[in-house]
Write a structure and sequence with these properties.
It is a single chain. By secondary structure, the protein is an alpha/beta fold. It has a domain of 174 residues: Protocatechuate 4,5-dioxygenase, Chain B. 35% of the residues lie in helices and 24% in strands. The chain is built from ten helices and twelve strands. The strands form two sheets. Strands 2, 3, 4, 7, 8, 9, 10, 11 and 12 form a nine-stranded mixed beta sheet that branches.
Length: 271
């Protein structure tokens, strides 16, 4: 009997009605396409934010809109995001067969799960996933821009960048495999201060400088792991959007930063 992780934040972070959700995601993607001026290579990896869609949806959409040209190319998505509610040592698999959203079911890629067998930093821990939003909020976008894909969801807790990079190497694959890192940027600074902090963080990511702190990005650990892997594979990062909640749907006194990046092959960075 198959086990399915049900949606935990539908109706809070994004609409729980399938038709309303589909319209909202489609609108966000269309608005993102209108802001994109030139074609680009299909990305191998993305960094996207994970707040409620009213806050970070437009920024996330700027990355997901790039995937539509590859909707038949991508067949596997490796999705990493930080834990917010339940601590865990290492990177946690959910131990389920699928994730559900109002848009349908996404199957867990059991081949990739088996590929990680034997890595001591990878554990099975359903509690880390049960109420975690950082992974869930990405799924409706992926379900909209890709035709058919399987998912490897990893909730990242106490781990090193090297441990994350080792996991990514195991499941790197080819053009069929997309890596998505879910992370917001700074939290609860005043608007101008947040802009300065987040601009510096974005530049560090563009320079593939490993060492992004959790104060700079709540998903700093998976971000740093991706940066290590990007250096090894010669990926070139590109900043797609950089804003905060004061730009979208919040006041300016305490904002959360959001950025979207695409990593594509062809860049040259030192090891």
């Amino acid at each position: 009997m198959s086990t399915i992780r049900p949606p935990a934040v539908a109706g809070a972070f994004y609409p729980d009605n399938s038709a309303v959700l589909a319209r909202e995601v489609a609108t966000l993607l269309q608005q993102a396409r209108e802001r994109t001026t030139a074609p680009h290579a299909l990305p191998k990896a993305l960094i996207v934010p994970h707040a409620g869609y009213i806050y970070s949806g437009p920024i996330a959409a700027s990355a997901y809109a790039l995937l539509e040209a590859g909707r038949k190319t991508y067949r596997r998505v490796v999705l990493l995001g930080p834990v917010h509610r339940v601590p865990v040592r290492g990177l946690a698999l959910p131990g389920t067969d699928a994730f559900a959203t109002p848009l349908g079911i996404v199957t867990i890629d059991q081949y990739l799960v088996e590929t990680l067998a034997g890595l001591p930093q990878v554990v099975e821990y359903a509690a880390a996933h049960a109420w975690e939003h950082s992974l869930e909020v990405q799924l409706p976008f992926l379900q909209t821009v890709l035709d058919d894909f399987s998912l490897l969801p990893l909730a990242v807790g106490d781990a090193t960048a090297q441990e994350v990079a080792e996991v990514l190497e195991r499941v790197w694959g080819g053009a069929e495999t997309l890596i998505v890192i879910s992370s917001d940027l700074s939290h609860f600074h005043a608007y101008r201060e947040a802009q300065a902090i987040d601009s510096a963080t974005a530049q560090a990511i563009l320079d593939l400088q490993v060492g992004v702190s959790h104060e700079q990005a709540c998903g700093g650990t998976p971000v740093n792991g991706l940066l290590l892997a990007a250096r090894r594979h010669g990926l070139q990062p590109r900043l797609l959007d950089l804003r905060n909640s004061g730009d979208t749907a919040g006041d300016h006194s305490r904002v959360v930063g959001y950025a979207a990046f695409a990593f594509s092959e062809g860049g040259q960075h030192a090891q």
